[in-house]
């Protein structure tokens, strides 16, 4: 089954393609997504943003569309960056900009105050009809400085205490087993497998 990813993020595409290995799903970017009317991801929850984006872009293709909304949630910051993770440092912020802003906001936080959660919600739609919505998360903490060269987004500062490494210090295979995106994609695969499109 062909699934079109409603994203222009090459890191997400790479991860989803890796997650789909060995399945019946072939994941590609939604063609010419930058030329389509954009979707305003201004809802207060990951679920509303993911579902809204999937429904919006599914009206421009006959294929199944996958959209996600994900981010890092820090309780000590009142849940920030949360749904604004991708634009935490501003509308045109880079991953590095967002990470640096988070580290500045966390500068006076110690121990449990550095706890964080990566959250991901995936929505699947076809031609304006929702098919699946699922979510999952992974717990960790925020480091004092970036570590590692793998991954993207907040991976260099998201620390797994059980293995003593950040998400950017582990292999893509290990990240896909542990990550919020990997966990929720496994759920989506189970939902989609018996469906006949």
Order of SSEs, N→C?
A: EHEHEHEEEEHH
Q: What would you call the structural class? A: alpha/beta
- Fraction in helix: 25-40%
CATH class: Alpha Beta
Shape, per Cα inertia axes: globular
Strand segment tally: 7
| Overall domain count | 1
If classified by CATH, what would the architecture be?
A: Alpha-Beta Complex
**CATH topology tier name:** Maf protein
How many separate helices?
Answer: 5
pLDDT < 50 runs, ≥5 residues: none
Taking all residues together, what is the mean pLDDT? 94
Strand order of the largest sheet: 2-1-3-4-5-6-7
Note the gap between the termini: 8 Å
* Radius of gyration from CA coordinates: 17 Å
Beta-strand residue fraction: 15-25%
Largest sheet: 7 strands, mixed
Could you explain the architecture of this structure?
With 197 residues, this protein is α/β, with parallel strands linked by helices. It has one domain: Maf protein (Alpha-Beta Complex). The chain has five helices and seven strands. Strands 2-1-3-4-5-6-7 form a seven-stranded mixed β-sheet. The longest helix is centred in the first third of the chain and has 13 residues, at 46-58. The relative contact order is 0.17.
């Amino acid at each position: 089954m062909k699934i079109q990813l409603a994203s222009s993020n090459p890191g997400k595409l790479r991860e989803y393609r890796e997650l789909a290995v060995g399945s019946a799903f072939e994941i590609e970017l939604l063609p010419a997504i930058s030329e389509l009317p954009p979707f305003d991801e201004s809802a207060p929850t990951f679920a509303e943003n993911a579902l809204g984006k999937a429904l919006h872009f599914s009206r421009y293709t006959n294929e199944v569309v996958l959209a996600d909304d994900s981010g890092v949630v820090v309780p000590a910051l009142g849940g920030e960056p949360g749904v604004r993770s991708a634009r935490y440092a501003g509308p045109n912020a880079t991953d590095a900009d967002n990470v640096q802003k988070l580290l500045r906001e966390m500068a006076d936080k110690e121990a449990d105050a550095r706890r964080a959660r990566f959250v991901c919600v995936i929505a699947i739609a076809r031609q304006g009809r929702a098919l699946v919505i699922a979510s999952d998360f992974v717990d960790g903490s925020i480091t004092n400085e970036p570590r590692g060269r793998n991954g993207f987004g907040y991976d260099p500062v998201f620390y797994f205490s059980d293995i003593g490494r950040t998400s950017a210090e582990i292999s893509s295979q290990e990240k896909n087993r542990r990550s919020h995106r990997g966990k929720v994609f496994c759920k989506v695969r189970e939902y989609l497998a018996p469906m006949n499109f």
